[in-house]
Specification:
The chain is of the alpha/beta class and 779 residues long. Among the domains are: 165 residues, Lambda Exonuclease, Chain A; 118 residues, Orthogonal Bundle (Fumarase C, Chain B, domain 1), CATH 1.10.275; 217 residues, 3-Layer(aba) Sandwich (Rossmann fold), CATH 3.40.50. The strands form four sheets. It has an eight-stranded parallel sheet, with helices on both faces. The chain has a seven-stranded parallel sheet with strand order 21-22-20-23-24-19-25, with helices on both faces. Strands 1, 2, 3, 4, 5 and 6 form a six-stranded mixed sheet that branches. The longest helix has 35 residues. It is globular. About 1% of the residues have low confidence.
């Protein structure tokens, strides 16, 4: 007997959903309801207890069985009582609209109450009266709307709901039974394992089996994607794990797991996956998301279940193209459609933020711990990405702009006044800074918190009563909510600062150490595999991911011949900030040395765009855009793709790209074969000195979590260097060189952080290095 469990509310809202995608859920509505709804429920329940023999918060649970499926439904009725041999069941709903305009009970509210009534009346099989009690949170008015049912009517309704849901899970169960047979028989999809690959697959499987986490450092070319997906699917087939989430750091990261799953599906054709695309990218219209403007939003919920059920019965591979095709056919929102489909597939591919970002994470999956398997690709990005997700700034200018909008608005005077208090406090802080640009404190500013919270509560009330389509109002509101939320979880891992910026001033809650949050988030699943080509130094990432003592580290050496890669450590250049300008010409001579070769594609990496431009200014003008090309700064994906595309196989001349470390051209490109013959990395990659990095340093030093400077600057810098160096050798036949250009590469701690095969690189100056490169390229 296969067992399933679902809440009554979830069952009803899934099977019976209807209507439009609307903006009636005004910003902050869910937050406000969560804070106020429980209070209203308690208040009404206390009133009813005084009037009658009343039972509040009744937990209900009932199991319905059909064939070999056992479906248990659970829930909590707000209250019930018996009068004149009839069962009365209460369902309390808080609302904001005029109660007199209601002609009928909302079908979803009524359905919930009917389900509670059926389960509560099972023993006596008595007739029931369901009371849906609507309470206006602004006027404190309530309206009780009743419907009476016989036990037979309730039973028919409840069993019909269960039958309809079982039709969904029956199909899904049958597919999974076939899939698990296919996966158990599935062979590794390549003729042989590369060196270290079989051991990696074994380590991943055992980690999932033991419900632990694993940090994997494996070089490009070993086949990391198949090495984590293949054993994960094998584990799921054995009942050791549920849905797999393949989480990526960037959009292009979707391609590798998608291609791998397409290949595996050819062997196990019931394997299903979906690649999630951000709402703003997959929306086919440039319209507001409401039924007045968008035909897909109008009646979306009337059509969505048919669209999803038809799709999961006929498709297994939900790429972006497939999602767009189906949503167009059924006229449903492609983003909402993809989220609904994700509940019926085996593997979900998506950005980190679907799990880690507290503002957009997928509540349907991650509200509580489940049997998920998390595969976190390019995990070296996770620490900084999580910092960004848990950091919030509030600008005085934003309050000033929003305040003006409420000066003459009806019911807006309170918002206007509250915003004014925040602005005046910002002015006070500005004066207290005197000649300083910023002030950093261990504790947050409680006065600012109280003022922002008061403003937020006031604006929430206004938005609930009146609403607003103004983007600036909505943006400030959401930022204030998150600002206050961060201060409510503030601890020694955060820092608070106030800073002047141009003619403005802002307050910021900054997460310096995200290890606790990353660790707690990963605990929402059964197991997590965090992998990258460069997790150096491993101990930095072990600490930064917040893993436990029994979680393991697995490191794989490069499977490619060591003689295919030549490393040059050149110490005749210093990239220290104070000395940097003295070496622009010499670095330019290294680039000219590459330009003098007969043919080849090369990339030179710099720590910043400004540094890149300073060196580029020393190059002859006739080389620029003919032999030497600066990376595009545009966000246009076509221009970015063209820049990479121009590094062609079998080059008949020399092409040199000048790029920035840590950007998409240092870890987001794959130039195999002779599309890239070598790289020069200028400097040890230290992030630019800035307030945020200094705060990280301060927090680590203050809490004695290791060297602040190493954690804030050195470790992230070296990782960028290794990422750039990893562009060179991508396959077994690739050959190329890496030039590490900075005297510090021969000094500790930088030298000690390099991989062993890079530490052994011989020391060179410019002339000897270029001479050796020419020999290498001619051989």
């Amino acid at each position: 007997m296969e067992k399933y469990e679902i809440s009554i509310r979830t069952l009803v809202e899934f099977i019976l959903r209807y209507g439009d995608i609307t903006t009636s859920d005004k910003p902050g509505q869910n937050v406000e309801r969560a804070q106020y709804g429980a209070h209203i429920h308690k208040k009404l329940q206390q009133e009813f207890e005084k009037e009658k023999d009343y039972n509040k918060e009744a937990y209900v649970r009932h199991t319905y069985e059909k064939s070999d499926i056992s479906l248990t439904v659970t829930g909590r009725a707000d209250g019930w009582y018996i009068t004149d041999d009839k069962l009365y069941v209460d369902e309390i709903k808080t609302v904001e609209f005029d109660l007199e305009i209601m002609e009928e009970i909302d079908p979803l509210h009524l359905a919930q109450a009917m389900c509670y009534a059926y389960v509560l009346s099972l023993d006596e099989k008595m007739n029931s009266i369901v009371n849906v009690i609507y309470y206006n949170i602004h006027t404190d008015e309530k309206r009780i709307m009743q419907k009476e049912y016989t036990f037979a009517e309730l039973e028919e309704f409840f069993l019909n709901l269960c039958e309809r849901y079982i039709s969904w899970i029956s199909f899904d169960r049958e597919r999974k039974v076939k899939l698990h047979v296919q996966l158990k028989e599935l062979k590794f999809p390549f003729p042989m394992y590369r060196e270290g690959q079989r051991q990696l697959c074994t380590a991943v499987y055992r980690t999932i089996e033991r419900e632990n986490k694993l940090l994997v450092q494996a070089p490009t070319g070993i086949g990391k994607t198949i090495s984590v997906l293949f054993p994960s699917l094998k584990a799921v087939a054995e009942g050791k794990g549920g849905r797999i989430f393949f989480l990526t750091a960037r959009n292009a990261g979707v391609l590798a797991p998608q291609d791998t799953l397409l290949m595996l599906n050819s062997k196990a054709n019931d394997l299903s996956f979906i690649a999630l695309t951000a709402k703003e990218k997959i929306c086919p219209f440039e319209l507001a998301c409401n039924p007045e403007d968008c035909e897909y939003a109008k009646g979306h919920y009337d059509r969505i279940n048919d669209a999803v059920f038809e799709s999961i019965n006929n498709y297994r591979l939900f790429t972006r193209d497939v999602i767009e095709k189906i949503s167009k056919k059924h006229k449903v929102c492609p983003f909402e459609f993809s989220l609904d489909v994700s509940e019926w597939v085996d593997v979900v591919i998506g950005d980190y933020n679907y799990l880690f970002d507290p503002r957009v994470y997928l509540k349907r999956f991650f509200s509580s711990k489940q049997d998920h398997v998390f595969l976190v690709d390019e995990a070296h990005n996770l620490i900084d990405r999580t910092r960004d997700m848990y950091t919030q700034k509030l600008y005085k200018k934003s309050f000033s702009e929003v305040r003006k909008k409420f000066k003459d608005r009806e019911n807006g005077r309170n918002v206007y006044n509250k915003a004014g208090k925040v602005i005046r406090y910002f002015n006070k802080l500005n004066k207290s800074l005197d000649d300083k640009d910023y002030v950093v404190t261990e504790e947050f500013d409680n006065t600012m918190y109280m003022l922002v919270n008061d403003f937020t509560v006031c604006l929430t009330e206004f938005l609930h009563k009146v609403g607003s389509d103004d983007e600036k109002v909505t943006e400030l509101f959401m930022n204030c909510l998150f600002f206050c939320k961060l201060l409510e979880i503030y601890d020694e891992r955060f820092c608070y600062y106030t800073r002047k910026e141009n003619s403005d001033i802002f307050a910021c809650v900054y997460l310096a150490d995200p290890s606790k949050i990353i660790g707690e988030t990963l605990e929402l699943g059964r197991s997590a595999i965090l992998f990258s080509g460069t997790l150096e130094p491993l101990q930095y990432y072990y600490q930064g991911f917040g893993v436990k003592e029994d979680d393991k580290i697995f490191s794989v050496s490069s499977p490619f011949p060591k003689e295919n890669r030549k490393v040059f450590i050149c110490t005749d250049v210093s990239t220290r900030y104070k000395k940097r300008a003295f070496y622009y010409e010499l670095i330019a001579e290294y680039i000219l040395g590459l330009a003098s070769l007969q043919k080849g594609n090369f990339i030179v990496y710099f720590s910043s765009y400004r540094y890149l431009k300073d060196v580029a200014n020393c190059l002859p003008a006739e080389l620029m855009d003919i032999t030497v090309f600066i990376q595009p700064q545009t966000q246009d994906p076509d221009e970015r793709e063209q820049f990479v595309h121009d590094f062609k196989s079998e080059p008949d001349g020399v092409r040199i790209g000048l790029c920035v470390l840590g950007g998409i051209y240092s870890e987001g490109i794959d130039l195999a074969g002779d599309r890239l013959g070598g790289v020069i990395v200028v400097g040890v990659g230290l992030p630019q000195v800035c307030l945020e990095r200094d705060i990280i340093k301060m927090v680590y030093d203050r809490n004695q979590w290791g060297s602040g400077f190493m954690n804030a600057y050195v470790f992230p810098g070296i990782n960028k260097v290794l990422q750039a160096a990893g562009r060179v050798i991508r396959t077994e036949t690739d050959k190329g060189f890496i030039v590490l250009l900075d005297e510090r590469f021969n000094e500790n701690p930088y030298k000690s952080l390099l991989p062993e095969d890079m530490k052994s690189g011989c020391l060179y100056n410019k002339n000897d290095c270029i001479k050796e490169i020419k020999k290498l390229m001619e051989s």
